[in-house]
Each structure stands twice: as C-alpha cells, then as structure tokens.
Amino acid sequence: MKQKATSWVPGQAVGAQRDYIASEQRLVDALRQEILEDVIRATTSYLLEYVKNGLQVVDSWLNTLVIGNNSLYAQLLRGQKQLQANREDDKKIKVREIIDDKTYETGLYQQYTQNGAVIAEIMKDMTWSVTVSEAGASRHFNLQLTCQLDNEKPSFIKERRQDNQSLFLRRTTQSFTELKNSESCLKYLKKKYQSKEADLGKLLADRSGLMLNFEKGVNAVPANYLRIHHGEQADDSTFLADALRAATNETGATGKFVAVVQSADRYKCTLVYTVDMVPLDNISSYKESEGDYKAFHAGQKGGRRQILHLFPAEVNAVGFEERLGELGENPRLF
Fold this sequence. Notes:
12 helices, two-stranded antiparallel ribbon, single chain
C-alpha cells in the first residue's frame, strides 16, 4: 500500500491513501467494538454480582421468615401444634371438659380481625427498607424489616430467630387485647347452653366426682361450689344458679353447702365437689386396708407404722397408740 501511495502513476497514490484510511477506520471500529464489549462484559459481571448478592439477601430473609426449619413461620407452626397437643392431653383428664369448638374459635377470629382488615393493618406496620453499601469497587444490597409498635419501631434480626418471634407476636397480639378482656368461659357457656342449663349442670356433675369410695346411705355432707368469673351481665347469676341446681340434683348437695363463687380466671369454670363427715368404717379403701395396717403394726410386715403416715400429728399418734399397753389398755387406733 505504501508503494502505491508513492507511485508516479496518476490516481494510484490517491486510491491507495483512501484504502489506507479505510483500513485504519476499520481498525478503529474494531478497537471501539472491543472496548465496548469489554465495558459491557465488566458491567454485566458487576451487575451479576450485585444481583447475586441481592438474591442471597432475599434468600436469607426467606429462610428467616418462611422457608427454614427455624424460620418465624416454622416456630409459630410448631407453637400452634404444641398448643393443640396440650389441649388433646388435657382432654384425656376425665374430670375436665375442654372447650374445643372450631366454629366458635373461627367466629371469634373473624370478629376480632374484622374479617381480615386487622391483618392488612399489621402488614402495613411491617416496613421493608433497602440500602446499598460500598466496599471498594463492590456494592452490596441490604434489606431490613421493621415493625411499628406504638412509639417504637424495632427491627427483625436474621440471626435472632426467637427475638423475631417475640417481636411478631407483640404486634399481632395487640389486636386481641380486647378479646382477652371481654371474652370468658361463662360467655361461651351461655351461648351454648342458654335455655339448656340442666344439660350444663349434668355435665358439670359428670365431670366431677369423689376420689374416695364409701358406702351410700351414711350421713355424709356433700358440698358443691361453682367457681367461675361472672357478674358482667345481669342474667349471669340466674343462668349459673339454674346450672348449679341441676348439678346438685346429681350430687345431693343442699343449703349453705351450695354456692356460686367469684373467680379471677375468666377462662375456667370449676365445680368443687366435696363430701364431709364420712365415717371411717364406711370408707371402702379403709376397710380393705385395715387388716394389713394392723398386721404391719404387729410387726408381721417387718416395720413400724410411723412410716405409713405423712402428717406429723399422725406419726405422733402412732407412738401413743403403741404405748397404750403401759396404761393397761388394749391396743386401739386413735
């Protein structure tokens, strides 16, 4: 090309120069394209690292809140299952009647969450904030979740899962404060047993009972005390009196040994059922054990009767019984 550029032939030099300039331009274009591709490659790599960092942050929060075995959702689900398991265990106790009415509970939930409106308010109080930090040539994506609680706005912390649960429950339980202060066991019983107080009384009697068998017909004194939070509505006393009257028809308690007693526990109803003045000789277990007890006293069982007693007064009484012979009296039980 250089030879052509210096040639004496007319027009040949000009043509060669034009070819040279075109070749240089192609080289410049190629270099420009290469530089552009390098910039795009570097920018893409930078953005890719930035996106990867963002995905890691999002995945970390997903594990913290929803997906992980120890996530907030998993903790709450385990807690719910444990509560249900505790309820099932309580049902196995014969003297208890556990309120496990899903329709009633769902109705309360819908009432106090205003059919989901409260849930929307709770979600509004959960605020996500995004910040970007720089370290040298790298930029890092940061995500933070905060919760509005009265005049404070604490943050959820990925590493403190138990604290996250406590923070979440602090916010959600605010919506049920009114429920805790207004609902009660009596409120449920009145709803279910209104005009069916006799059924409630029979249920109370059936779920109660004595832990001691004795012969019927003795002059024992039964007593029934219905312990329940009441008095917030005018008809509470009438409803409870009717239910207790039905219970006493089953237990035989009468007069001053029957009463409704106030309770500070809004969520429990207890029928205290006792029988006093039962002669020892009429108690089945006493009669069945008397022979073995006296045999133990006589040394036939290899021990002293003091170890069969719990109360100090009974232990001391055994010592006096054993010394009756010193007074010339026959052995007898105090």
